[in-house]
Structures are given as structure tokens and as C-alpha cells.
Automatic annotation (TrEMBL), chain A:
Source species, domain of life: Bacteria
One family name in Pfam for this protein: BPD_transp_2
Protein's UniProt keywords contain Amino-acid biosynthesis: no
Record's keyword terms, sorted: Cell membrane, Membrane, Transmembrane, Transmembrane helix
Membrane topology: Multi-pass membrane protein
Coiled coil: none
Membrane spanning residue stretches: 21-42, 62-79, 91-107, 113-133, 145-163, 196-214, 280-310, 322-341
Organism: Albidovulum litorale
Protein name, entry field: ABC transporter permease
Cellular localisation: Cell membrane
Stored InterPro entries: ABC_transp_permease (IPR001851)
From TrEMBL, chain B:
Residue ranges of the TM segments: 6-26, 38-58, 64-83, 95-114, 146-168, 200-225, 274-295
Keyword terms of this UniProt record: Cell membrane, Membrane, Transmembrane, Transmembrane helix
Pfam families: BPD_transp_2
Keyword Glycoprotein: no
Signal peptide positions (record): none
Subcellular location as annotated: Cell membrane
Keyword Nuclease among record annotations: no
Protein name: ABC transporter permease
Length: 349, 314
């Protein structure tokens, strides 16, 4: 067999194939539910209900979506330039560390000043964390996939050290956690009484900002050019190395905001389980959104809904909650295949 | 206990060989994939599924070697998925690899919870026992280290030789290396690049899964969610460090295992009382990054690594 490009794919092809990918994912979910001895329809219904069936469920989904929008954006920005940043997890924790460092009394500033200062400091930290692997890539040709992945493990150990050492909460009864943020450093709720904080709004704003950068600025154009064909971009006079570095700073900064928003908006302190793999899930979010920053918002809410829904379904129906992880990985793989098949056809001979 | 004591103890060298064993399997597996032109980032998840499947099979009552076979088959299945998506369809090897890692890890977690819903600590199996080779295992220092290991460890070392011989001494190895260097030349010989690459990824994934199974069936006797803990990513660094050659990769795995065994023991020394234990635990990951930097200048990357091949396209 060989693949042939299709110059002008039909609408059926462009929409039918991704829809088919989602249908296949749902089919696999049903099979897994059956395997676990549950009714597939009831299982899917429970997931849906747990994700969006009540005001509480919906707010929970939006809360869970917030860090995923940030990490999804981080991945989308980087992958667009074919910069494989798999280290959003490390950058997230970098942002979280700085948030605790500055938010526990180090800066005597009023809230309106303190929060932006912390956010910017968190972004800078995340950017710096990704700078290392990117310079290794542009200067030495070291593959950034492996280095960013390895950094995740180093970072988690570093956080563990901080939480058992210099950053340990003296009132924490021996638990490895940081002291709580001052009230001035906490992100307030958008509407009093509703459990949704300003981190969500910041995430939406970030998505808009990234969209503007990608579609309305020279940098956005350069990032796309580098991603499409680095050699051609170099030939056209685009400083590929510099564009890579700028992309990395943006990507790392966005991922760090996830840590900032989780600590300052939701948790109030830093623990080792701050992120249940938000950095890795961000890859799925970005790919399902076709690396489109506005799409990231939608796909993050969708992915968050599946995870939140699966949690509550698992309690009710007894199907292991890991069904959500299988679903998301399946959705990722079927979606990239569906997208390939919209622009190419298979010739058997 | 100081450094010299550590280096002169037989248990240290035995630990080096033990720690190196799963890395050798998985590094060989990755090396085979990459030599054929496919980067397999599914390695981390495939090691997890191998660790789970082998352990589960033995827990359900099969023999240890059948368990190894089950682990290998599970790995090959995910290898087939990876190969199908990346080779004939030419999808991004980065995205597919990460997707396969996520899928395999999630499958292992799901299957674990499904089969053992109530348990809080995973059940133990009787793992492979050390197999003392007569006479040789009586050599001081070297004997206990090299000749008092489990059968899987011996298999790992034998495989290094087998893979080297196949790669450099057989037509199959030549075709495989050519698929990773100059796929058009393989087609010109009338061979199928697609078949060679897919075969390499499937076989390589089987080896990765055995590496994972070593953890549950030889090193420990239970399955834990975080047990692979980045070993797959370290193996990818080892392939680069070994310049895509089995012998050098073995050397890298041993060197790496040496530092890993050393850091565990240094934690017990006066140094360990001063330096936080997390710093010791960082050593393997930091070393992997250093190895990548060191080898970056003289890397002999297969020329067609990560380049999809589409017949008839130039």
C-alpha cells in the first residue's frame, strides 16, 4: 500500500473521519464497560452526568479544565514549531514553587499588585526551565523529547526535597506540604459563592492571547514557518534558533501558569500530587484541538469532563476510573489517524 | 562504609548487573526500532504493560517462562499498533509514541484495578531465583556478581550478542540497517521497507516488554503503578549514548546501573546524612541528560530515523 495526497478533501472526509474517530473511541469505552461487568449505556450516561449533570459537576469540570487549558496551550504553541515540549509537568511545578515562594509573605504587596507579580514570576520560571532543553537542542542537537521528559522526574524529586526540607509547612503535622498562601496571594472566585476562580478566566484570556500571537504577529508566522519546514524557513531568512527559543519561552511560561493557577486559585498550597499528569494530558488536549489555541479551550473542557465524569461514574458503577485514561489515549491515536486520512488516501497495489 | 568498601563488595557488583538487566532488554528493543528508522516513544508504556502482563500471568497460575512470553506478546501487540500507525500511515512518531505510552500505561492500570478491585497492596508472586553457575560462581567478587543471577539476566547478556550478530552478520540485519539509513536502496533490492520496519518495531517492543517484566518477575515480586519510573526514557538516552550499537549500549547500561547502585549505597554513608536523598535519586536522570550532551557531537544517528517512507515518493 502507499499513500497519495488528496488536494481538495470533501466535507464528508473532513468531518466524517474525525467523527468516526470519536465514535470508535466511544465504542471502545463501551467494550471496556462491558468487560468490567457494567451496562455500557449506563456507564456512558454516568460519565456524562458526572461531568455536566449538575451545577456542581459543571463547575468541577471547568475547574479541572483550567490547568489543562494552560498545559494544552503550552503544548500547542510548542508543537506548532515542531518543538516537542513533553516537559509541561516540570514547568507546571516550577510555576507552583514560585507561587508558594512569593505568596507566603515574601512580598508585602496588596493583592492587586501581588497576584500579577507572582503570575509573571511563575511564567519566567517556567520559561527558564524549558530554556535548558531548547538550548541543548538548538546548540548541540540533543533531542528535546528525552531531555524534557527526564526533567519532569528531576523536578518532582526537587519538589519532594523542598516539601520535606526548606519549604515544609511547620504546622503540617509532618505531611510533606508547603505552608498555605497568604490571603492576598489567592485568586478570588469569579462569582462569590460559585466554586470557580479567576484562573479559569486567565486561561481563556491566555488562549485568546496565543491566538492573536499565532495569527496576527510576525512571531506567529515565523513559528508556523519553522514548524512546516525548518530548512525552508532558514533559507527564507528566519532565524530558526531564535524562533525556537521564543517559542520555548512562551510554551514554558504557559505551562507554569497552570501551576500558579492550581496553587493560587484552587489548592492554596503545594503538595507532591498537585498535578495528576496535567502536563502529559496537555498533549492530548492540544492534539484533539489540532493545535488551535481556541480549540484548546473546548478540548480541555471535554477532556476534563471525561476525567471528572469517570471519577463519579467509577464510584457509582464500579468501572475503574482509568477508563478515562484509556479513552483519552485512544481518542488521541484515532484522531491523528483520522486527520491523516482526510488529506491522504490509501492506494492498495 | 566508604566508597572503597562499596566498590569492593560483591553485593554492589551483583546489584549493578541486576539493575542493568531490564535496561539491556529495553535498550536493545529501542535500538532495533531506531536502527530500522522508527523512534519508539511507546517504550515507557510498553515496559509498564510488560511488567503487568508477565506478573499477572504468573499470579493467575502460569509458569514463569510462560509469563515472560505473555509479557512479550503484550508488548508486541502495542508494538503492532505503533508500527501500523507510524510505518504505513507515516504518522508523527513523537505523537504516536506518546499516545502508545499513555494507552499502554492506562491499560495496565485499568486491568490491574479490574482484576484486583479490593486489594490495597499488590499480591506477590514467586519470582525467578538466582541460578548459580557451578565453579564460576565461586570466583571471589566476580562470581557472585556475574554468575549468581537469575535466568533473565543471563538471557539479557546473551541477547546483546545475538542482536549484534543479527545486525552485522546476517542479510536480515543488513536490510534492517539499510531501512534506517537509506530505505530507497532496500526497495531497490526488492524488499519491503514497510515489512522490515514493522517487524523491527514489533520485535523491539517485545524486548521492551521483557525488560518491564524483569522488574516484576526477577527484581521485585509485585506490580506497582510507578515501578517503571522513567526507565524507558533512560533507555532512549542509552541508545544515543551507545551510538546505536548493541555492545556500546550494553556498556552504557552497565555504567548507568553502576551509578544507580552507587547512589543507593552512598545514601547509607555519612554523605547521605548531609545530602538530601532526593539528590541521590536524581542521579540517574541527570546522568542520562549528561550522556545525551556528551554524545551529541559524535552521534551516528541512522540517517532515515523518523523519516516516513512512502513507496514511489522521491
Amino acid at each position: 500500500m502507499r499513500l497519495e495526497p488528496i488536494p481538495n478533501p470533501t466535507a464528508l472526509r473532513r468531518f466524517g473521519l474525525p467523527a468516526g474517530a470519536l465514535a470508535l473511541t466511544v465504542l471502545i469505552a463501551s467494550a471496556l464497560a462491558l468487560l468490567a461487568g457494567a451496562n455500557p449505556f449506563a456507564t456512558l450516561g454516568l460519565i456524562l452526568k458526572g461531568a455536566a449533570g449538575s451545577k456542581f459537576a459543571l463547575l468541577e469540570t471547568l475547574n479541572r479544565a483550567t490547568p489543562l487549558i494552560f498545559t494544552g496551550l503550552a503544548v500547542a504553541v510548542a508543537f506548532r514549531a515542531k518543538l516537542w515540549n513533553i516537559g509541561a509537568e516540570a514547568q507546571l511545578y516550577g510555576g507552583a514553587i514560585v507561587t508558594v515562594l512569593l505568596g507566603t509573605g515574601a512580598l508585602p504587596l496588596p493583592s492587586a499588585l501581588l497576584i500579577p507579580v507572582i503570575a509573571v514570576a511563575a511564567m519566567l520560571t517556567g520559561a527558564l526551565i524549558l530554556l535548558g532543553p531548547v538550548l541543548m537542542k538548538t546548540r548541540l542537537g540533543v533531542d528535546e523529547v528525552v531531555t524534557t521528559l527526564l526533567f519532569n522526574f528531576i523536578m518532582l524529586l526537587f519538589v519532594s526535597y523542598l516539601l520535606e526540607g526548606p519549604m515544609k509547612d511547620p504546622m503540617g503535622m509532618g505531611w510533606p506540604k508547603s505552608p498555605a498562601l497568604d490571603k492576598a496571594a489567592r485568586l478570588p472566585r469569579i462569582v462569590e459563592g460559585l466554586r470557580l476562580h479567576w484562573g479559569f478566566a486567565l486561561a481563556i484570556l491566555s488562549a485568546l492571547a496565543v491566538w492573536v500571537i499565532q495569527t496576527r504577529t510576525t512571531l506567529g508566522y515565523e513559528i508556523r514557518a519553522v514548524g512546516l519546514n525548518a530548512e525552508a524557513a532558514r533559507f527564507a531568512g528566519i532565524p530558526v534558533g531564535k524562533v525556537m527559543v521564543k517559542t520555548a519561552l512562551l510554551s514554558g511560561g504557559l505551562a507554569a501558569l497552570a501551576g500558579f493557577s492550581e496553587v493560587a486559585g484552587l489548592k492554596g498550597n503545594l503538595t507532591l500530587d498537585l498535578s495528576p499528569g496535567f502536563g502529559y494530558t496537555g498533549i492530548i488536549v492540544a492534539m484533539l484541538a489540532l493545535l488551535n489555541p481556541l480549540g484548546v479551550v473546548i478540548s480541555a473542557i471535554f477532556v476534563a469532563g471525561v476525567f471528572v465524569g469517570a471519577d463519579s461514574m467509577s464510584r457509582a458503577a464500579g468501572v475503574p476510573t482509568y477508563i478515562a485514561d484509556i479513552l483519552m489515549a485512544t481518542a488521541l491515536l484515532t484522531m491523528v489517524l483520522a486527520l491523516k486520512l482526510t488529506t491522504t488516501r490509501i492506494r492498495w497495489r | 562504609m566508604d566508597l572503597l568498601d562499596i566498590l569492593l563488595s560483591a553485593t554492589f557488583w551483583a546489584a549493578v548487573i541486576r539493575i542493568a538487566s531490564p535496561l539491556i532488554f529495553a535498550t536493545l528493543g529501542e535500538l532495533i526500532c531506531e536502527r530500522a528508522g522508527v523512534l519508539n516513544l511507546g517504550i515507557e508504556g510498553i515496559m509498564v504493560i510488560g511488567a503487568f502482563a508477565g506478573w499477572m500471568a504468573v499470579y493467575l497460575g502460569t509458569g514463569l517462562w510462560v509469563g515472560v512470553g505473555v509479557a512479550m506478546l503484550a508488548g508486541m501487540l502495542f508494538g503492532l499498533l505503533h508500527a501500523t500507525l507510524t510505518v504505513p500511515f507515516g504518522l508523527s512518531q513523537h505523537v504516536v509514541g506518546l499516545g502508545v505510552t499513555l494507552l499502554a500505561t492506562a491499560t495496565a492500570s485499568f486491568a490491574y484495578r479490574l482484576s484486583l478491585p479490593e486489594v490495597t497492596s499488590p499480591p506477590k508472586i514467586t519470582p525467578f531465583q538466582p541460578w548459580e553457575i557451578p565453579v564460576l560462581s565461586d570466583i571471589p567478587l566476580l562470581g557472585p556478581a556475574l554468575f549468581s543471577q537469575t535466568a533473565l539476566t543471563y538471557l539479557a547478556f546473551i541477547l546483546v550478542i545475538v542482536v549484534s550478530l543479527i545486525l552485522y552478520r546476517t542479510p536480515l540485519g543488513l536490510a534492517l540497517r539499510a531501512a534506517g539509513e537509506n530505505p530507497a536502496s532496500v526497495e531497490a533490492q526488492g524488499l519491503s521497507v514497510t515489512a522490515i520496519r514493522m517487524g523491527a518495531v514489533i520485535v523491539g517492543s517485545g524486548l521492551m516488554a521483557i525488560g518491564g517484566a524483569f522488574l516484576t518477575m526477577s527484581a521485585f515480586s509485585s506490580f506497582f503503578f510507578e515501578m517503571v519510573n522513567g526507565r524507558g526514557w533512560i533507555c532512549i538516552a542509552l541508545v544515543v549514548f551507545g551510538a546505536w550499537r548493541p555492545g556500546k549500549a550494553l556498556l552504557g547500561a552497565l555504567l548507568f546501573a553502576g551509578f544507580d547502585a552507587l547512589q543507593v549505597r552512598l545514601q547509607q554513608t555519612p554523605m547521605g546524612a548531609v545530602v538530601p536523598y532526593q539528590v541521590f535519586l536524581m542521579v540517574p536522570y541527570v546522568l542520562s541528560i549528561l550522556a545525551l550532551i556528551l554524545m551529541s557531537r559524535r552521534a551516528e544517528v541512522p540517517a532515515a530515523l523518523m523519516v516516513p517512507f512512502n513507496k514511489g515518493e522521491r
